Amino acid sequence: MTATDEAADGLRAMIAKGELTPGRQLPAEPELCARLGVSRGSLREAVRSLAALGLLESRHGSGTFVSALRPGQMLAGFAATVDVLPLDGLLELFDVRRPLEAQAAALAAARADEQVVARLREVQKRLAVSEDEAERHALDREFHSTLCEASGNEALAALIDVLRARGSHYSIYGAAEADTIRLASDLGHEALINAMAARDPAAAAAAATAHLSQTEVWLRRYAPLPDDGPAAG
Q1: Which residues of the chain have pLDDT under 50?
Q2: How distant, in Å, are the alpha carbons of 64, 147, 157 from that of 60?
Q3: What sign has the CA pseudo-torsion 124, 104, 116, 142?
Q4: From CA 149, how far away is CA 144, in angstroms rounded?
Q5: Could you give the CA distance from residue 48 to residue 55 in angstroms, rounded to a whole number?
Q6: pTM (2 decimals)?
């Protein structure tokens, strides 16, 4: 283990034990170096690596602080890894996404209010008439983000957002069945909206599972090359 690794492990341990709480400024470098038994150079490198992972944040003119330690920040490093996966790796993620998105939909159906349902209806209304692929991708992401946020579980919503992100680089709207794909995707959204409106967690989970499974089928069938275009679902 390098000195930088030792410094990073020591800082993580201090955070995990509650010695360094969210929002607290790190002690002065000499104090930390003495406690961790590392040089200033190793400490600074460790701080940079932890900042990249979302654990620490530097504030110009103020110093380095422990971040808020929110789920979205903690998943920043994971997001960078997921965003370069090839198609076979992306398809493996569907086995993880299905139960997570089903759970998020079920929680959302149990907790969502009329404003959430209305927002989902409005987004889907715009999706149904849009002919612009970039716009459809943005609206699709807004739809699913709204639903996941309605679950009331920030960690679950953040993780799903990370797992969904890579799919945006694999477009299936240029396939021979593009019209069928688009219609099925829209119908999947409608099923989710209806489950939200009915406050039916079981129906919401089933709709989310079916919607995601259909997207996986299309990706396996057409095996598109990665680009900047949107994928359904």
Answers
A1: 229-230
A2: 9, 36, 31
A3: negative
A4: 8
A5: 10
A6: 0.77
